[in-house]
Design goal:
Elements lengths: L8 H10 L5 E4 L3 H9 L4 E4 L7 H14 L3 E6 L5 H4 L6 H19 L5 E6 L3 H14 L6 E2 L7 H17 L5 E2 L7 H12 L38
Parallel strand pairs: 1-2, 2-3, 3-4, 5-6
Length: about 240
């Protein structure tokens, strides 16, 4: 659930209290909102390295998550990379997304001694998404990956893009939880998301897996729409 302003925190707390499912707080721009969301029932915090205000402003967010006993998702987005990375001509977009996520993971693990982390790195382009998660799987084998194609589009286009991107990643054993992003009538999204989420849970190894770059082999797991999956709320 996005919390765009501090005056939305009461509504967020009400949803947490009434929801049968754990609720993730999606926070941009204001680290204080993330801190307060952790105190008001969030099951997980999502922070965007590109707009949360820098590493030092993230430190109190980490402490709030630690105190609440909840994980943090480092959610990098192609449309909101840190300026220092966005302006580099020597890196491809997947490399920039990976570098942003890796930098924050290293900070949380090494500087804050916080390891209850999950990573996502979203782009609307399918190939960029695939290449980014391949890099992340190689660079951060210890960190669960939350996969998805952001701004995938309306039901027809969005299902195709999500199925293509996520299908490739899942077939290669990459991904612990997944998100289906559709721009459509809310009532029509559920069945479409389930169509994608019913991808095989235990895909067979790729016959040329040893030849594919940046892969990691993960044990069997569940793949469901939203931030679901094995141990999803603790990851």
């Amino acid at each position: 659930m996005a919390i765009p302003r501090k005056d939305c925190l009461d509504a967020f707390a009400a949803v947490c209290a009434e929801s049968a499912l754990p609720v993730v707080a999606d926070v941009h721009f204001d680290a204080q909102i993330a801190i307060e969301a952790a105190r008001r029932g969030a099951a997980k915090l999502r922070v965007n390295p590109g707009n949360i205000g820098g590493l030092e402003k993230t430190r109190p967010v980490v402490e709030a998550a630690r105190e609440a006993g909840i994980p943090i998702r480092i959610g990098v987005n192609a449309g909101s990379l840190e300026d220092a990375l966005a302006g580099r001509d020597d890196l491809s977009l997947p490399e920039k997304l990976c570098a942003s996520a890796v930098g924050y993971v290293r900070f949380l693990e090494d500087e804050c001694d916080f390891h209850d982390i999950v990573v996502s790195a979203k782009a609307h382009d399918v190939q960029t998404t695939i290449d980014t998660y391949r890099l992340l799987a190689a660079e951060l084998p210890q960190v669960p990956l939350h996969i998805g194609v952001t701004e995938a589009g309306t039901a027809f286009q969005g299902v195709i893009k999500s199925a293509c991107g996520l299908g490739v990643l899942l077939e290669q054993g990459i991904g612990d939880t997944l998100r289906i992003s559709l721009t459509d009538d809310p009532g029509a999204r559920g069945p479409r998301m389930l169509d994608v989420a019913r991808l095989p849970r235990h895909p067979p190894p790729h016959p040329r897996a040893h030849q594919l770059p940046h892969l990691r082999a993960l044990p069997g797991r569940s793949h469901h729409a939203g931030e679901a999956g094995r141990g999803a709320w603790r990851r």
